[in-house]
Structure formats: structure tokens, C-alpha cells
Amino acid sequence: MEVVINEKRLTPAEQDRLDELEAIIRENFLAYVAVGNALLEIRESRLYRNKERRTWEEYCRRIWDMGHDYADRTIAAAKVTGNLLTIVSKDDGSPDWELLPANESQARELARLEPEEQARVWRLLIDYQRATANERHPFKITAKTVKKTVKEFKGEQVTRRVRAATEQVRKQAKGEDKRSAQFVAVFEHFMAEVTREQAAGWRHTSRQAVFESLCAAAQAVGECGEETTKARRVLWRGTNIDKLLAAGLAIFRIAADNLLIEQLTAVDQWLVYGEYATPEQGLAAFEDLMLEPTNIRA
User: Fold this and answer.
1) I want to staple 146 with a disulfide (CB 3.0 to 4.6 A). Which of 43, 109, 186, 242 is the partner?
2) Rounded to whole angstroms, what are the CA distances from 288 to 68, 144, 255, 261, 284?
3) Which of 23, 26, 37 is nearest to 101 (CA)?
4) Using one digit for the tens of pLDDT, what is the confidence trace for 24-78?
5) Whose CA is closest to 143, among 99, 97, 109?
6) What is the DSSP letter of 238?
7) CB neighbourhood size of 54 (10 A)
């Protein structure tokens, strides 16, 4: 049990020192932003490359003893905080650091959302925190509460889209694009099952399994083949890099010294495509690669 001791109020000197110490704590809490931004520049500019470390993965492992996935999460968290700076600012326009995620764990949970969704969810949390500030047990933003709010938000998005799709089918059934009453009923039943699975946390049928079923149905009616459904899958769940790779494009990059060519196999995963004895050989090989219409430069 915590014992509260009645003491004198802080002197001006003590208050100044408290402010200094809290500033140090706050700066270190937000150190992940500086670290993430630094890692981002190293990764995007390929500053990690040399004869001993030719890939991003090797650099993270050898220099910082961390997996590249952890580094990527730190980068994502820093991007989130940068995005939130647009909605949390003081009256003079300067950043209100006290209203930003206090640590990388909180920001990482928001990284699962699109930028505009991140702002909406964080604003929701901030407003709720302010509304309960004077209560006996005020709401506190933690990584756990952020995760829960993100999960609820994503669930609401699914429910909203299911409702919109069902209503669309109902309206189209009354128009020129014919749909039988039985078809509409089956569709509504299926979408109701999707809603129930979402509410259950995809415990009985995974979200991916539902999507694969939808892809199978699309192929069955002959309007789109396997490649099209793969592209739609990427549009729904993947990144821009995933979309390019799913479209059949090959992405290459050449080292600054022109002695090494790498090919992208997944997001931030590069494999050595070719090594060359002279810069002229490397550049010539890369130029030949770029002549292929399905090959693009990173």
C-alpha cells in the first residue's frame, strides 16, 4: 500500500530541477523516434553497404546485434510519431511532446493502420484521456490500450464494409443487374458469418481463410483468374512492394561501386544477383537487366 506523506510544496528551485529531470526522461522516452529516423535513412540510402555488410539484414545483425525485423518495426514506429505530429501541437504550432506516444511499443501498435487511421485512433485515445483526467481512476494510454483500440477500430471497419456490401447487393437486386432472392439471401448469410468471425477474433475461421474463399468464388465465375485474385489480395493486405512483386515485376538495385547487383525478394529482403570484377562489368550487366520490360530499378 502506498503511503502518502504530507510535505511542503516544491520550491521554485525544486520545480525547475523537476522540469529538467522530466525533460531528460521525456527525451529518452522519445529516443526511438531519432533511432528510427536514423535507421530509415541508413536503409533507404543503403549506407550500410560495404564488403563485409552487403545487405540490410547483415548490417542490423553485425553492427547492432538486432534482427532487421526489429529495426523495421522501430522505423515504422518513428514514422507513426512523425505522422501524429500533424494532430498534436501546441497553440503556437510547436509539437506537444506530452501528447505523442511515450514509447516505441505504443507507436508500433498504431503502425498496423493507415496514416489517416493512425491519427483518428490516437485522437480518440487522447480525447478519452482528457475526458477522464479528473476522475479517481483516470484512463492511461499504454501499449495494451492502444492495441485494444486498434483492434476494435479494425473490427468496426470490417463491420462497416460488410454492411455496405450487403446493402449494395440488395439495391442491385432491384436494378438491371439481376440477382435472385435466393442469391441475395445466401450472400447476406455469408456476410453475416464474416461479421460473426470478426467479432470472435477470427478464432474459428481465419481472416485469410475467408479471403481465400472469396478469391476461389471469383475464379469460379470466370471473371478473374488466379493472377487477378493474387493482385487483389495484395491490394487488400500488402504493401506497394508486394503489389509490384505480385504483378510479376523484378526489382533490382546496383551498389554505388557498381560491383554488386541485388534483387528484391520481399519487403526489405535483398539477395545478391551478381558480383562483378570491375565497375564497368557491373554497370553493363545492370543496363542489360533494365532492357527487360518486367525489370525495374529500385
Assistant:
1) 109
2) 31, 51, 16, 12, 6
3) 26
4) 776 776 788 888 989 989 988 888 887 677 788 888 888 889 888 889 888 988 9
5) 109
6) -
7) 19
